[in-house]
Amino acid sequence: MNIAVIFIAALIPLIVGFIWYHPKVFGTTWMKAAGLSEEDGKNANMALIFGLTYVFSVMLAVIFQTLVIHQSHIQSLFFLQPIHDPASEAGALYKNIMDQYGNSYRTLKHGAFHGTIAGVFIALPLVAINALFERKGFKYIAVNSGYWILSFALMGAAVCAFL
Question: pTM value?
Answer without folding.
Answer: 0.90
